[in-house]
Amino acid sequence: MKKIILASKSIDRSELFNRIGVPFEMLASNIDEEKFKKKNSDPIILVKELAKAKLDFVKELVKKRGEDALIIAADTLVDLNGVIIGKAKNSEEAFKLLKTLNGKVHRLITGIAITETNDPKIINDYDITLVEFLTLSDAEIHNYIKTNEWEGRAGAYSINDKASLFISKINGSSSNVIGLPMHKIYEILKTDFKLNLFQK
Amino acid sequence: MKKIILASKSIDRSELFNRIGVPFEMLASNIDEEKFKKKNSDPIILVKELAKAKLDFVKELVKKRGEDALIIAADTLVDLNGVIIGKAKNSEEAFKLLKTLNGKVHRLITGIAITETNDPKIINDYDITLVEFLTLSDAEIHNYIKTNEWEGRAGAYSINDKASLFISKINGSSSNVIGLPMHKIYEILKTDFKLNLFQK
Known about the structure:
Strand content of chain A: 25-35%
CATH topology of chain A: Maf protein
CATH class of chain A: Alpha Beta
CATH architecture of chain A: Alpha-Beta Complex
Largest sheet of chain A: 7 strands, mixed
Low-confidence stretches of chain A: none
Helix content of chain A: 25-40%
Number of domains of chain A: 1
Structural class of chain A: alpha/beta
Oligomer: homodimer
Number of helices of chain A: 7
Number of strands of chain A: 7
């Protein structure tokens, strides 16, 4: 199977790929996300552009190495009634952010971009999952913050960890909430890159 | 915090509890599931009764030990248009089962039963999540079977592992698909047993 590079430093995306049992390498990008955020107010256009920018950055790195690989990039954000919510910078911001999402349904959007080093073709797509939170008290949110699950995560929560206690319902792909819509990646790799993740 | 005992031997349920960071002990029940299956054709009544029977069995064990604990039991099954689907006994049965679910939406139902050793009260509830499968070819299903994820799992798949590639959508609790509706357990423990899983 062709070498797969995940243009990401997210431990959640790493776990998603580890658990499908397909070998991969992680390679982080270094892009100015703020520049994109200032330019875009539409969350779908924004996550797609961010995923594409990460992909371009990592594709250049891999080309310099002279490697032939398939590269997958992604960006995740939360959209609550048109307001874009990213990652919290500290625990105070995480509290405010979770308080905003508390008792409500938000859209978890992941943008993906996929290419090969020796192919100009780029697939740039996205997936949306609706996520419903129970209503927690301030004391409960403070206790959740202490787990540090908020760190580095869009929306300041981790659905597979302690946040499972307050996520009552999702509608859409569950892996998308963790950071990669795995069924979509499977379909794109199969259709556009002739790579079947169910082959040995 | 009061001691929590999970009346289960499922590694998935164990992982769900490990990841919320709450200490617990696993204690398997030994009940005649076939007896209940012959008696019940309604999947919701059946999973609730199976969870209750597992609870009763483990409650007796814990009482004999003389321990004071909170006990949580669960049973999971798949319902496809009124047909109850449990676990596959071998890889041939797993293939048939996955072929039945292929390209369709099924109901994943988990029954739960919760009690305390020193309290006659039993909460017996359930949760339903709709799960949508992409359409895989026979060769792809055979390759999935080789991962052995089907073993010991209702519906013969593991959503957090390689099955993430063919589960396009769920509607409901995601932890419920793994074997325990965690938000429901959190709410029941808080309301009926005065135990808050967000307390230190």
